[in-house]
Write a structure and sequence with these properties.
The protein is an alpha/beta fold. It contains 13 helices and ten strands. Strands 1-2-3-4-5-6-7-10 form an eight-stranded parallel β-barrel, surrounded by six helices. Strands 8-9 form a two-stranded antiparallel ribbon.
Length: about 260
């Protein structure tokens, strides 16, 4: 199996990062992660963050950047990625007032234009979905299908989130296979098997994580990203459980 590196999405550790950004990065490295996916930079400049990454031996997998920032400060976003050594920037979330069919059509244009500008600068733009993009539009397609089919595949890639696909009643493997080589980053999440379908540590729930890992190389995955939106344990304990599970599946992790 190809040595696809593993990062953690910093949103999982948002409270810890707010208290001690540097210490959080240090702990992530100690747990054996290869890198991090940012959701903000802890009030620091990209140059300052890059210095910490170098100190702890971490890579910048990508950065989640709000749509408004992509619209209004794209050049700054691109420069930050270059400074961090990140090849990917991700549109992470749509606010409720931007989820109408009209807004999806506008989103497609925004992503295409931003993605082209990123591509010309050596950065790849991805769209990260939740479950609401799996709802049908008037043309019979799901919103996520519309986003991917109506944008230029060279300009816009996708960050599939296996939890949200499962939550919407979809099969993550089928989606990854359908859009292979357009899925450079995959969010690995698990889901409790009870009615609540709460976020779970990898290997403890009902998402077939192994099946996803097994097609990563063929699908062109460049990064696995562990994210757990909410935890019932200390978040560090949760991500440690998840990385330890991955160490049993990904040999290169167990050697770190």
């Amino acid at each position: 199996m190809k040595k696809i590196p593993v990062a953690v999405q910093m949103y999982t550790l948002r409270e810890e990062s707010e208290k001690d950004f540097s210490g959080t990065l240090k702990k992530i490295a100690e747990l054996g992660f290869d890198g991090v996916e940012f959701a903000g930079y802890g009030g620091m400049t990209a140059k300052e963050v890059k210095k910490l990454l170098n100190e702890f031996g971490l890579q910048a997998a990508s950065s989640h950047v709000l749509l408004e920032e992509l619209e209004n400060n794209l050049l700054g976003v691109i420069e930050d990625q270059k400074t961090l050594g990140s090849n990917y920037v991700v549109c992470p979330y749509l606010l409720p007032d931007r989820r109408s069919e009209e807004h999806y059509h506008k989103l497609i244009s925004i992503l295409d234009q931003a993605g082209e500008k990123c591509r010309l600068e050596g950065i790849t733009l991805l769209y990260h979905h939740h479950d609401f993009e799996l709802e049908l539009l008037s043309d019979g397609r799901m919103a996520l299908e519309s986003i991917l089919e109506d944008t230029n595949e060279d300009n816009v890639k996708v960050e599939f989130d296996v939890y949200w696909l499962k939550k919407a009643g979809e099969n993550p493997v089928e989606w990854i296979n359908k859009y292979k080589n357009r899925t450079p980053i995959i969010h690995l999440k698990d889901m409790t098997t009870d009615e609540e379908q709460f976020f779970a540590e990898l290997g403890t729930g009902g998402v077939d994580i192994d099946a996803v890992l097994n097609i990563g190389e063929e699908a062109g995955v460049q990064w696995w990203v562990v994210e757990q939106d909410f935890t019932r344990r200390n978040p560090f304990e949760s991500i440690e459980m998840s990385i330890n599970y991955l160490k049993t599946k990904l040999p290169h992790l167990s050697k770190k």
